[in-house]
Specification:
The protein is α/β, with parallel strands linked by helices. The protein is built from seven helices and eleven strands. The strands form two sheets. Strands 6-7-8-3-9-10-11 form a seven-stranded mixed sheet, with helices on both faces. The chain has a four-stranded antiparallel sheet with strand order 2-1-4-5, with helices on one face. The longest helix has 18 residues.
C-alpha cells in the first residue's frame, strides 16, 4: 500500500506492539498509536519512562516489527513490506542519531562519516567529498581527522549527525540526541536540527525528556500507557483522547 498524500512522510493508525515473555503474559507496550507527520516537520515524542517512546521510534525506523495496525513510511506500508523493502527504507530513506553517538572509536570524524557510504559501495572520491560537505555543514570542517576521544560531546554528536546525512535521508530519527550533552550544547544540536528541517526539508522525529528542546519543534506527541495522550503544536494543543459528555 502506498501513502495517499504526497506530503505525508509518516502515518500510523492503531499501531500496537506487544512483547512476548516466555512462560508469561505478553507485555503491551504500544496500545493504539495514531499519528501523522508531514514531510519537513520537526516532531518531538515525549512521555514517562515505559510509555513506548523508543519502541515507537524503533518501529518507525524498521528496527522492530509491529504487532498489528498500520504504519506507512512514504510509499511503504510496513505491514506489507518485505525484508528487502525495509532494508531499502533504512539504506536510502532514513537515518538514526543515538544518544550515545555510536561512533567507531578508532576511526576519525571523516572516516566515521564515510563508513556508511563505503558499505553502500559509493566510490571513494565521492564519499570523501560528501563526508567533507556534511561535516562542514554541521560546523566541523576543522576537525575532520580527529578521533572521537579528541572531540567534545557536542562535536561527537555533530559527527553522528553528519554520518546520518551521508545518504541524503528524507527522515532522521533521533533518540534522546541531547541526553548526554550539557544544556548549551544541547541547544546547539536542536538549532542544527531546525536548520536541517528548514534548508533540506528533512523530517525529524525526536524522542526526548527535555521539555525545552521539545518546545523548539513544530509539534509534540505525548505518549502515556502506549497511546498518544496529547498532541501539541506551537499555535495550539489538542487532546486526542475521547471527550465524553462534553456539550458545545
Amino acid at each position: 500500500m502506498s501513502s495517499k498524500k504526497a506530503d505525508v512522510s509518516i502515518k500510523t493508525d492503531n499501531l500496537i506492539k506487544d512483547f512476548q515473555i516466555p512462560k508469561g503474559e505478553d507485555v503491551k507496550v504500544l496500545t493504539g498509536v495514531k499519528m501523522e507527520v508531514k514531510a519537513g516537520e520537526f516532531i518531538a515524542v515525549m512521555g514517562p519512562s515505559g510509555s513506548g517512546k523508543s519502541t515507537l521510534l524503533n518501529i518507525l525506523a524498521t528496527l522492530e516489527p509491529l504487532t498489528s495496525g498500520e504504519v506507512v513510511i512514504g510509499d511503504f506500508d510496513l505491514e506489507d513490506s518485505t525484508y528487502k523493502d525495509k532494508l531499502e527504507i533504512r539504506r536510502l530513506h532514513s537515518s538514526i542519531v543515538f544518544q550515545s553517538f555510536a561512533l567507531i572509536p578508532y576511526l576519525t570524524a571523516i572516516e566515521n562519516v564515510k563508513l556508511p557510504m563505503k558499505l553502500r559501495k559509493i566510490p571513494e572520491k565521492e564519499a570523501e567529498e560528501k563526508a567533507v560537505k556534511h561535516l562542514e555543514s554541521v560546523g566541523l570542517y576543522g576537525r575532520l581527522n580527529h578521533l572521537p576521544e579528541e572531540l567534545s560531546g557536542g562535536e561527537q554528536q555533530r559527527v553522528a549527525i553528519a554520518r546520518a546525512l551521508a545518504h541524503d535521508p528524507k527522515i532522521i530519527y533521533a533518540d534522546e540526541p541531547t541526553g548526554n550533552l550539557d544544556t548549551f550544547t544541547g541547544r546547539e544540536i536542536i538549532h542544527l536540527f531546525k536548520q536541517l528541517v528548514k534548508e533540506k526539508n528533512i523530517t525529524i522525529i525526536m524522542v526526548t525528556h527535555d521539555s525545552e528542546s521539545a518546545k523548539q519543534t513544530d509539534r509534540i506527541y505525548i505518549l502515556q500507557k502506549g497511546k498518544v495522550l496529547t498532541e501539541k503544536s506551537k499555535s495550539k494543543s489538542k487532546k486526542n483522547t475521547k471527550k465524553e459528555g462534553r456539550k458545545k
